[in-house]
Backbone:
C-alpha cells in the first residue's frame, strides 16, 4: 500500500479570505513579518500496491475530476 | 391542454426543493419530484436544481452532487436544450458540472448572508427570464455562504459581451461576486444559474415580494408556446 499526497491550492489570482483572516490575526499574536497566508487542502490518498506510474495516473485523474476544481484551483501530487 | 411539467431534483441535503415545487405550481405548471439517485428525468419539460447543501457540500459546494446519477441525464438533456434553472446550491452544481463557466467560492466576508437583496435583470431573453424586462429591479432573498462568483477575466468579458450575465446585485454586493454577478446563463440561454432564491419570493405571505415568480412563469409561458 502506498500513500499519495494531493495538495490543492486556490489559483494565485483568486481572493482567499480565509487566508487573509489568518494573516490578520498573526500580528496580534506577536508574529511580525508575515506578508500573506493562503489556505489550501491536503488529501492523503491510500492506494493498493506500489505508487507506480499507473497508480499516480489514477490519482491524477481523481484530483482533476473531484479533489480539485481546475477552474479555480491548482494541485500537486507527490508520494509520501 | 396539459400543464407543463417541471422537475425539481432532491439531493441528500437539498433544502428548498419543496419551495421550488410550490413556486412551480403557483406559476401554473405541474411540479415533478426527481430523485438524485435515479437515472430518470420522467419526461419533464424543464428542471430546477434547488438550494441547500447537497451531499453536505463537503469538499466544495456542488462538487459531489455533480456526480449524482441523475446529473448525467441532466447534463445530456441540458446540452440538448432542456431548460434548467439552478438556484443557489443548484447554481454551484451547474458550475461544477461545467454546464456554466466559473465557480462559486466562500463569501468574501466569510459569513453566511441572509437578506432581501435588490437585483437588476440584465438579460430578459433567457428561458427563465422572458417575463421580465431588461433593467427591471427585483427584491429577492439571498442566503448563502458560498456565493462569490469567480471566473477568469477573459470569461467575465465574454459573459458580459454576449449578454450572458442574467442578473447583478444592486446597492450592496453580498458575497464579493466579481462584477456583482448574481446569475449567468449558457450560450443557448436554456441553462441559468442564480444565487438569490426566486422561489422564496413567489407569494406575499412568505416572501418580501412576488418578484421571483417571473422565473417560473417565464418557463411556463415558453413551454406552453413551444
Residues:
Amino acid at each position: 500500500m502506498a500513500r499519495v499526497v494531493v495538495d490543492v491550492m486556490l489559483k494565485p489570482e483568486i481572493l482567499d479570505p480565509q487566508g487573509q483572516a489568518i494573516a490578520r490575526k498573526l500580528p496580534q499574536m506577536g508574529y511580525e513579518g508575515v506578508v500573506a497566508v493562503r489556505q489550501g487542502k491536503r488529501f492523503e490518498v491510500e492506494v493498493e500496491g506500489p505508487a507506480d506510474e499507473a497508480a499516480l495516473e489514477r490519482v491524477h485523474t481523481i484530483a482533476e475530476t473531484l479533489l480539485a476544481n481546475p477552474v479555480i484551483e491548482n494541485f500537486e501530487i507527490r508520494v509520501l | 391542454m396539459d400543464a407543463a411539467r417541471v422537475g425539481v431534483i432532491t439531493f441528500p441535503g437539498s433544502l428548498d426543493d419543496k419551495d421550488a415545487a410550490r413556486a412551480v405550481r403557483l406559476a401554473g405548471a405541474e411540479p415533478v419530484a426527481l430523485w438524485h439517485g435515479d437515472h430518470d428525468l420522467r419526461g419533464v419539460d424543464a428542471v430546477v436544481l434547488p438550494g441547500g447543501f447537497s451531499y453536505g457540500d463537503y469538499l466544495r459546494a456542488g462538487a459531489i452532487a455533480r456526480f449524482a446519477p441523475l446529473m448525467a441525464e441532466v447534463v445530456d438533456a441540458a446540452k440538448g436544450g432542456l431548460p434548467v434553472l439552478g438556484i443557489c446550491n443548484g447554481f454551484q452544481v451547474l458550475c461544477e458540472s461545467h454546464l456554466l463557466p466559473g465557480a462559486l467560492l466562500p463569501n468574501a466576508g466569510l459569513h453566511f448572508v441572509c437578506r432581501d437583496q435588490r437585483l437588476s435583470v440584465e438579460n430578459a431573453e433567457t428561458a427563465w427570464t422572458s417575463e421580465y424586462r431588461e433593467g427591471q429591479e427585483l427584491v429577492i432573498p439571498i442566503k448563502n455562504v458560498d456565493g462569490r462568483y469567480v471566473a477568469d477575466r477573459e470569461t467575465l468579458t465574454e459573459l458580459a459581451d454576449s449578454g450572458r450575465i442574467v442578473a447583478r446585485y444592486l446597492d450592496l454586493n453580498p458575497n464579493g461576486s466579481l462584477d456583482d454577478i448574481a446569475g449567468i446563463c449558457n450560450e443557448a440561454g436554456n441553462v441559468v444559474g442564480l444565487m438569490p432564491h426566486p422561489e422564496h419570493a413567489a407569494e406575499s405571505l412568505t416572501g418580501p415580494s412576488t418578484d421571483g415568480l417571473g422565473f417560473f412563469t417565464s418557463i411556463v409561458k415558453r413551454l406552453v408556446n413551444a
